[in-house]
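About this split. The held-out portion is used to measure sequence recovery: a designer receives only the structure tokens and must propose an amino acid at every position. Recovery is the fraction of positions where the proposal matches the reference. Here is one held-out target exactly as it appears in the evaluation file.
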């Protein structure tokens, strides 16, 4: 056990270090974990380090957080206009892809139709982790709101593929076909119900008890919410991955305190989860089996890239008026990844008789897909003229405000303010800040160096956004009806030492700069700054 921990941690450090190096060339880092995991089989202790059933459990748990963060990190305001098309691609498009692969596997691989459908179901979902890591690293946005399309599609097509995989396994295990409709209904009803229900129950709890949490306990609380959502849905026969995704998207787009810190926390958990999936499941691969699976995997990768994926994308997007170049890029970005590996292990441990080495084919298909499509993503986007140079890709994610590292502030120039009567060039505001706009009554003025500030001007300034550091921490507290702070003046509040109220946000979203006589009302959200 100790040896396994030492070897595992060393490999993670090596992978991350080398991944940062090769990422400069556009190669997704996750393929390193897959390669090293497969290489473990060559070591004398390789076969003893992991059991297929344990690997399945590890992959299943890791995928919970991949799905949860897929929803949590999605900016719904940006994604809403394309949600319908993305949802169709994540459901009908996945089914169409699975059926196309079924026909291909029957005709080319000479597999039974049931096993062909199982292969199609497993490989029908796409993975966006490598794509988004490239977009974030290169700060590369895509035109026509394509990033939001990929977020919604990739977050919600895994549950569809999981449902199809369960149907395929039910058929191969000899279950009656009459059970298929019941399985679909239970998966959708409990998946949606549990995901939405727990999220809506969790929001007021987080708002209510946020200021009573010890530092970091709010992250643990939401972590447990994600696990509970998946587990309860699975216990009731629902789609746990769908529940986790829906719970994540609701929490990520709500006004819960410390959401940016949560986004960064789950971003790290998501990466660790994907590392575990690629490395641990890669360890199940037998190197001799890979050699015999290379040609089928290459054929399947090309079929998915050139026929199955474009067929689904063009039928849904082109018929709804999307540009051809966007359809081509979305077709290219259909990488196979973590979820397919987890579902492949599920199939191999289910006890069904398989004619082919389905797991090795899926692993190699994911490898070729990530290596080819991920590496050439930027070049393909450039060739298609789909790179948006006028907007920030981080606008598509809920952690945009902090990631952009800029913030806007408005200042009212009351009569007597020391800046009134001075030219902008004479103000000592520091190199990190800039006055970008002046509102003077109904007039909007573009600031210049010789612009004179007049009484009652409203200045809009930009500067570097403040983030939590070792000296001060920002937190938010929701004030409920029965809270001791409700209907209390700021000067009468009992605050912890070295704590200051920086802002009060009302229920309608408006903000109030607190004074001693400011009253805190039920429904207010109070922003606190604490320092040592």
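Reference sequence for scoring:
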């Amino acid at each position: 056990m100790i040896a396994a921990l030492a070897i595992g941690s060393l490999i993670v450090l090596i992978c991350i270090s080398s991944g940062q190096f090769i990422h400069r060339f556009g190669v997704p880092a996750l393929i390193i974990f897959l390669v090293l995991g497969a290489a473990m089989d060559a070591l004398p202790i390789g076969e003893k380090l992991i059991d297929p059933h344990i690997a399945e459990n590890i992959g299943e748990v890791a995928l919970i957080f991949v799905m949860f963060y897929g929803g949590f990190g999605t900016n719904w305001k940006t994604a809403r206009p394309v949600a319908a098309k993305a949802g169709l691609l994540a459901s009908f498009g996945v089914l169409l892809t699975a059926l196309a692969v079924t026909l291909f596997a029957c005709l080319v691989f000479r597999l039974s139709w049931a096993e062909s459908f199982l292969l199609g179901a497993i490989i029908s979902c796409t993975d966006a982790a490598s794509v988004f890591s490239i977009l974030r690293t290169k700060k590369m946005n895509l035109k026509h709101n394509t990033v939001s399309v990929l977020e919604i599609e990739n977050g919600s097509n895994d549950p569809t593929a999981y449902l199809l995989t369960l149907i395929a396994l039910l058929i191969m295990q000899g279950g009656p076909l009459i059970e298929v409709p019941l399985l679909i209904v239970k998966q959708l009803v409990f998946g949606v119900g549990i995901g939405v229900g727990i999220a809506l129950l969790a929001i007021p709890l987080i708002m209510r008890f946020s200021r009573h949490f010890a530092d970091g306990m709010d992250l643990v609380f939401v972590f447990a919410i994600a696990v509970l959502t998946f587990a309860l849905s699975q216990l009731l026969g629902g789609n746990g991955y769908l529940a986790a995704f829906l719970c994540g998207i609701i929490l990520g787009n709500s006004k819960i305190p410390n959401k940016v810190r949560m986004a960064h926390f789950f971003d790290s958990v998501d990466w660790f989860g994907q590392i575990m999936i690629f490395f641990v499941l890669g360890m199940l691969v037998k190197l001799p089996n890979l050699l015999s699976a290379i040609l089928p995997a290459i054929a399947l990768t090309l079929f998915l890239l050139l026929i199955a994926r474009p067929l689904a994308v063009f039928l849904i997007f082109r018929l709804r008026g999307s540009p051809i170049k966007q359809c081509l890029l979305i077709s290219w970005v259909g990488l196979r990844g973590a979820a397919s590996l987890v579902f492949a292990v599920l199939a191999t441990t289910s006890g069904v008789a398989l004619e082919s080495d389905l797991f090795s084919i899926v692993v190699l298909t994911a490898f070729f897909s990530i290596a080819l499509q991920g590496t050439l993503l930027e070049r393909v986007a450039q060739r298609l003229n789909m790179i948006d140079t006028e907007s920030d890709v981080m606008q598509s994610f809920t952690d945009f405000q902090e990631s952009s590292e800029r913030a806007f502030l408005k200042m009212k120039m009351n009569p007597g303010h020391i800046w009134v009567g001075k030219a902008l060039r004479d103000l000592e505001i520091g190199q990190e800040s800039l006055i970008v706009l002046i509102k003077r009554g109904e007039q909007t003025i573009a600031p210049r160096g010789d612009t004179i500030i007049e009484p009652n001007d409203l200045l809009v300034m930009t500067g570097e956004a403040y983030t939590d550091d070792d000296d001060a921490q920002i937190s938010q507290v929701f004030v409920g009806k029965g809270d001791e702070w409700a209907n209390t003046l700021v000067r009468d509040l009992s605050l912890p030492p070295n704590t200051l109220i920086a802002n009060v946000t009302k229920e309608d979203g408006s903000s109030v700069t607190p004074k001693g006589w400011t009253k805190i009302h039920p429904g207010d959200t109070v922003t606190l700054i604490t320092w040592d």
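Annotator remark: Residues 399-404 have pLDDT under 50 and may be disordered.
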